[in-house]
Amino acid sequence: MKISIHAKTDIGCGRDNNEDAFAFCPDLSAPTWGDDHTKGYLPLGQLGALLVVADGMGGLNAGEVASAVAIDSVRQTFAPEAAARALSSDESACQLLTQAVKEADEAINRRMVSSPETAGMGTTIVLCWLTGQKAYVAWCGDSRCYRYNASDGGLHPLTKDHSYVQELVDQGKITEEQAFTHPDNNIITRGLGDFDTQVKPDVVITPVKAGDMFMLCSDGLCGYCTNEQISQILADSRGDVGRCADDLLRTALSVPGDDNICIVVASLLADDQHAPGGSKIMHLLRSLFG
């Protein structure tokens, strides 16, 4: 199996700073954390790849600090030795993801103690650990992870928002369509940092196969673009993660809103499959002529 990853973040249309953050490592067995994209498709290492998105909260109270601290903590937790031990079973893999989220929460709380000016900061987080056979996904808050495969039913949301409006949907009080435009759809019920209860991530496992695309995002994307729009963009990209990330960002920016945007897209191919043909040329033409 081989993997290609592309990430984008943008301050958005109505903010003075960007509180979103991302990180990815295409090969945890030789951890080099990427800048914003891999150079084409790389072999998926024995320990798999890790994708992370964090959406900081707190405005003047350093939301961007919370997301950065969380990302840095996750990188430390997923040291090669820890990842190797955790892949011995599904249970231990899920435990490492849970540990990563809890240690990120503790790191944020320690920073608030040592830097009182950051009191009240927090962040959502979503992590996706991709191995050759399975994806392990953990999250707290309303940042999301999707899986897309054209030959396997299209778009599959893998996370379920920890939010007030999602609770209303679960209770049958509003529909998914009503939740998308609900005035309180920015209220989350779980997160890292200054929350009243101990952090409690959810974890899911899903099979991985060649042709899968995984997309992580903050609510600056999924809060303004419908699942139908996201699905169409993933379909149109045909595995070109650079084009996909660009088109997702462009679509989010075209909708009136004031949130930061963060997107990480990964595509998986079998070793004998070819990368999308002419993708670099088409990407250049699209950037020049729209």
Strand order of the largest sheet: 3-1-12-11-7-8
Helical proportion? 25-40%
Put simply, the count of helices is: 9
What is the total tally of β strands?
A: 12
H/E topology pattern: EEEEHHHEEEEHHEEEHHHEH
Assembly form of the protein: single chain
Mean pLDDT, all residues:
91
As a whole number of angstroms, the C-alpha radius of gyration is 18 Å
Structural class: alpha+beta
Strand content: 25-35%
End-to-end Cα distance, whole Å, is 32 Å
Unreliable spans: 278-290
Shape: globular
Major pleated sheet: 6 strands, antiparallel
Description:
This protein is an alpha+beta fold. Helices cover 34% and strands 26% of the residues. The strands form 2 sheets. Strands 3-1-12-11-7-8 form a 6-stranded antiparallel beta sheet. Strands 2, 4, 5, 6, 9 and 10 form a 6-stranded antiparallel beta sheet that branches. α1 crosses α3 and α7 runs antiparallel to α8.
Q: What are the salient characteristics of this protein?
A:
single chain, 290 residues, alpha+beta, six-stranded antiparallel β-sheet, 9 helices, 34% helix, globular
What is the topological layout?
Layout: E1 2-10, E2 20-25, E3 42-43, E4 49-57, H1 63-77, H2 80-86, H3 90-114, E5 122-130, E6 134-140, E7 144-149, E8 154-157, H4 164-170, H5 176-180, E9 192-193, E10 202-207, E11 213-217, H6 219-222, H7 227-237, H8 241-253, E12 261-269, H9 279-289
